[in-house]
Amino acid sequence: MENRKNGKINDKKIAGALIIMVICLFAFNGIRINTNVTFKYSYFQSFTTVFISIILEASFFILLGSFISAIIQVFISEKLIARIIPKNKFLGYLCAASLGLVFPVCECAIVPITKRLMKKGVPMGCAVTFMLAVPIVNPVVILSTYYAFTGKIEIVIIRCVCGIVCAILIGFFMDYFNVKKEDFVKNNKYDMESKCACGCESSLSSFKTSKIRMVLNHTSSEFLSIMKYLIFGAFVSSLFQVFFSRNAIAAVGHDPIGSVVVMMMFAYIMSVCSEADAFIAKTFLNQFTIGSISAFLILGPMIDIKNTFMLCGNFKGKFVARLILFIIIFAYFAGVIVNILSSWGFV
Amino acid sequence: MKRFNINEFLRLIILSGFAFYFFYILKTGKIYMFISPRMIIYTKCTLIFLSILSIYQLTKVFTVKLNQKINKVYIILILTLIICFLGLGNKVNSNLAEKKGINITSTQQSKNDKDDDESKDDEGNMVIADYNFVSKTDDIGANLEKYRGKKVVISGFVYKDNTLKLDEFVIARQLMTCCAADTSIVGLLCGYDNTSSLQKDQWVRIVGTIDSTQYKDSGSSKETTLALIKIETIENIKIPGNVYVYP
Questions:
Q1: Measured between beta carbons, which residues in chain A are less than 8 angstroms from residue B50?
Q2: What is the pLDDT of residues B122-162, one digit of tens each?
Q3: Could A246 and B100 be called an inter-chain contact, meaning their C-beta atoms sit closer than 8 Å?
Q4: Are A316 and A115 within 8 A, CB to CB?
Q5: Does pTM surpass 0.80?
Q6: Is the dihedral of CA A174, A179, A182, A183 positive or negative?
């Protein structure tokens, strides 16, 4: 009975998706004919090149993140976590933020790890601080920022300090506003599936599943699950890259407030890995204020299109919405404050 | 009961498909079109890992499963795999250059004086090759006076846009840091009377003398001094195997 109901809903979804695709095709063709814009084959080639490159680059880190998440799931028990986490909340935040200095993991890999940690009992605020701090202050990113901005060590310092401060504040406020003490982790299909497949919780298994098998199961489940979000994110990001002209935003470069807003939007849309975004930011050094570049360097590793999809798949919508709101607020203030400091001559 | 699990089978297709794709692009060298050489080691690790996962997945295909509904999500992953294989025929083009704009180092950006060796050709001209393209063009742009009057040989593609004068173009290369998504365009301004005869994206080798010109940025009111190469000879060349330069 349930299968039949699920089948009906799935068929409706497919039919809906097909109808939307056909409408899009007609609209696309209509725009093409009426506005005389030539959608050359080279645009499609550029799009696929960028799309494939994002997926190629990110797959290693997603695999790594899935693997670490699987290790945590199989080998680290809730009791161990409860013993490690400091009782003092403030110390907990500091710990989470400084873990970033030793964890060379980028923003793609950190999402499954954080979800696993939260399920194992790490308090939400600390987990959020961890998730936001790691992509910014990890050693690879610090090195690449230093290398990109040779001669401007202040940018590296701003990125680290603001990154840690923002991560701690955002984690704190996420916890503070979580009055109902909700659990925000989404339990998706794969978790249920893999529990049965491992045989650790299901009685249907006919053989004892070794820990190695469990790790492999979780890794491949997590990997495939996250890949689909990466694909959505890469798709949207590539579209923007191919059709969105940078010169359009150059005009607002010197405005102390507008530049911060524009660079934050740009960081969100570009979805560049935090190891490489310093080089992109450097190309804006002449045209944009230093505060806006700082905001770009802080917001980029924390959230972008790719990341948003991944978060939506792993956490509940309310969590993701609040998180994005806080990131925007704090990155904005960081950028504006840096601009004010630079106008006073401190930077 | 049939011992065949369609979902596990699809997962096998996807995992092994990606593993094979990585193997193919690593073997044929097409990977350089997408990501930077320093990231190749990561791709090799991914290949090994995916192969292990695929082999393990093979053992799970012939298991019994109660619910045989195909998970529709796998279709997206298979579509992506198809796009990846289709993309193998791509040629790198530079229409992204128009969208990203171009970065030319000006004298305002202070740089340390780099004491590096200059490769010279038969006539004693300074040759700029792929491996030092970024550092040399940066150095020429920032320390213009050190290079004024010197002759230089550069290869790149022709970049023209409407902020440049009619007899100016930029000799450009695509700079890749991590992957094709973060490429930017770097180069030097060139002054050439016959610029209108040059096509965009045409690959050329130029010999010229380093001079300077004033450039007014549309955003700010001040004028900056930019290096300008006065072209003496220009010849068409074939598009190189690897179009990217690295920092």
A1: 63
A2: 566 788 888 888 888 888 887 888 888 888 899 998 888 77
A3: yes
A4: no
A5: no
A6: positive
Long-range contacts of A27-33 (CB under 8 A, 24+ apart): none
Distances (CA, A) of A104 to A73, A164, B46, B227, B228: 20, 15, 17, 40, 42
pLDDT, one tens digit per residue, over A311-338 is: 888 888 889 999 999 999 999 999 999 9
Q: Compute the count of residue pairs across chains A and B with CB atoms less than 8 Å apart.
A: 159
- How far is the C-alpha of A154 from the C-alpha of A151, rounded, in Å? 9
Lowest mean pLDDT among A37-46, A194-203, A267-276, B57-66: A194-203
CA angle A123, A201, A189 (to 5 degrees): 70
| Cβ atoms of A237 and A308 closer than 8 Å | no
CA pair distance B237, B203, nearest whole angstrom: 6
Strand duo B203-216 + B151-159: pairing: antiparallel
Element (H, E) at A22: helix A2-35
Instruction: Please tell me if residue A211 touches chain B, with a CB cutoff of 8 Å.
Output: no
Q: Return the number of other C-beta atoms located less than 10 Å from residue B125's C-beta.
A: 18
* pLDDT tens digits for range A220-259: 888 888 888 788 878 877 887 777 766 666 677 778 888 8
Q: Which residues of A270-305 are buried (b: 16+ CB within 10 A; e: fewer)?
A: bbbbbbbbbbbbbbbbbbbbbbbbbbbbbbbbbbbb
Greater pLDDT, A36 or A184: A184
A94 min Cα distance to partner chain B (Å):
31
Chain A residues with CB inside 8 Å of B95's CB? 40, 42-43, 46
Q: How many distinct helices (H) and strands (E) make up chain B?
A: 6, 8
Q: Which residues contact A237 (CB under 8 A, 6 or more apart)?
A: A50, A54, A269, A270, A271, A304, A305, A306, B181
Selected for mutation to probe chain A from B45, B64, B99 (highest A CB count within 10 Å) is: B99
Of the candidates B77, B86, B178, the beta carbon closest to that of A57 is on: B178
- Please report residues of A whose CB lies closer than 8 A to that of B178: 57, 272-273, 275-276
The answer to whether residue A150 neighbours chain B at the CB level (below 8 Å) is yes
Establish if A42 touches chain B: CB-CB under 8 angstroms.
yes
Contacts of B106 in chain A (CB under 8 A): 286
Which residues of chain B have a CB within 8 Å of the CB of A272? 178, 181-182
Q: Which residues contact B145 (CB under 8 A, 6 or more apart)?
A: none
Q: Classify residue A178 by burial, with Cβ atoms within 10 Å: 0-12, 13-18, 19+.
A: middle
| A75 contacts chain B (CB < 8 A) | no
For B27-65, letters b (16+ CB in 10 Å) and e give: eeeebbbbbbeebeebbeebbebbbebbebbeebbeeeb
How far is residue B159's CA from residue B201's CA, in Å, rounded to a whole number?
6
